Amino acid sequence: MRAPLINSTTQQTPTPVYRPRRLRTTPALRDLVRETRLTPAQLIAPIFVRHGHDLAIPIRSMPGQYQMSPDRAAREAAELAALGIRAVLLFGIPARKDSCGSENADPEGIVPQAIRAIKAEAPGMVVISDMCFCEYTDHGHCGVLNTPDRDDYQPQLGEGYLLNDPTLTLLAEASVVHARAGADIIAPSGMIDGMVAAIRSALDAAGLSHTSIMSYAAKYASGFYGPFRDAAESPPQFGDRSQYQMDPANAREALREVDLDVAEGADILMVKPALAYLDIIRQVRDRHHLPLAAYQVSGEYSMVKAAALQGWLDEQRIAIETLTAIRRAGADMIITYWAKEAAGWLG
Ligand code: PBG
Questions:
Q1: Which of 60, 140, 155, 311 places its Cα 20 to 30 Å from the Cα of 304?
Q2: Using an 8 Å Cβ cutoff, are 215 and 196 in contact?
Q3: Nearest residue CA, atom 6 of ligand 1?
């Protein structure tokens, strides 16, 4: 018999190569080599609070989300705590809106009431107060506008321009009120230049040097906020927010924004939205050593909810996949409307 042309032994044992599939063989092996962990302690739950008692009003554009009265928000916080969630982020819907958003600085305003209720029922919960004026102003912009009736009217900026420094004064004042009510963290979200420094010095001057600041450092002018404006009843009555929020086309500018907030004394940085800005999350993570938050915003949630309600995709799988991707990009914590459900799924 003729010898085979190719030695069969050699054929069966090719040069050893690394075979990545070896470590994917069983669930235990996959868990062992998993690089990114997702736990309830890394999730922050947003809560929309409004005046009233025993209210939980569904938000049409965000299935599964509610506007709650302070008592219901407090109960919700206790349930979240039981699931291992450590922090809530409060948004207030005021009783009345006016041109300068006065309720935001009222010690009896909706957010201070909710903070006290939550602290009473879920004492260990970290309470973060979103600090912005768009929910409180009748024009829906994030601060004070340039109008001819003002002494400091600046015609060259045009009517309706958001005035930076007068807004800083109001942000500082309202932050002290929320911190005195018991907020652990103030989270300025308006992209007003100098907001972190103004809030830091006001807090320090008021004896609140222990109150932290989580800065919405790189917040983009995004279409993904659409459903939120329904939830917080805060759409701008004219124009949009591109004179203060960032252009989605810019990445280097985000790093300049973040550098400024670090220099001004921010304790936690934030990038917002999350999924369309994973490159920004990664760059900020590599550049600074402060804790980094990412905000998975209303549109990121609602588009998946809507598709899931049609039966077009698997909500749980996509929620966990996107949250994991945001963690992998470098976020330490994620603000997400899935916080409660995800904490349940993660067990
Ligand atoms: C307020 C604020 C907004 C969001 C968080 N804080 C709205 C906006 O900037 O228009 C959006 C959150 C979300 O879409 O989930 N400035």
A1: 140
A2: yes
A3: 189
3-state secondary structure of 103: helix
Q: How far apart are CA 141 and CA 143, in angstroms?
A: 6
DSSP helix, strand, coil percent of the chain (3-state; round to 5): 45, 20, 40
CA of residue 241 to ligand 1 center, whole Å? 11
Digit-coded pLDDT (tens) for 298-315: 999 999 999 999 999 999
Q: Look at ligand 1, atom 2, and give the residue with the nearest C-alpha.
A: 189
Measured distance CA(260)–CA(272) in Å, rounded: 17
| Distances from the Cα of 22 to the Cα of 13, 19, 26, 34, 158, angstroms | 16, 6, 9, 14, 64
For the segment 247-251, the average pLDDT, to the nearest whole number, is 98
How far apart are alpha carbons 221 and 242 in whole angstroms?
6
Buried b / exposed e along 201-230 (16+ C-beta atoms within 10 A): ebbeebebeebbbbbbbbbbebebbebbbb
**For this structure, is 305 an active site residue?**
no
Pairing of strands 162-163, 144-145: antiparallel
pLDDT given for residue 347 in this prediction: 85
User: Which pLDDT score, from 0 to 100, does residue 239 have?
Assistant: 87
Cα 34 from Cα 23, distance rounded (Å): 10
Q: Which residues pair with 57 in a beta bridge?
A: 67
- Of the candidates 184, 181, 183, which has an alpha carbon nearest to the alpha carbon of residue 113? 181
Summarised one tens digit per residue, pLDDT across range 157-205 is 999 999 999 999 999 999 999 999 999 999 999 999 999 999 999 999 9
Indicate whether this model's pTM tops 0.90.
yes
From 225, 270, 275, 335, mutation site for ligand 1 pocket: most ligand atoms within 8 A of C-beta:
225
How far from chain centre, in Å, is Cα 211? 18
Nearest to 130 by CA among 199, 220, 43: 199
Q: Which residue puts its alpha carbon closest to atom 12 of ligand 1? A: 297
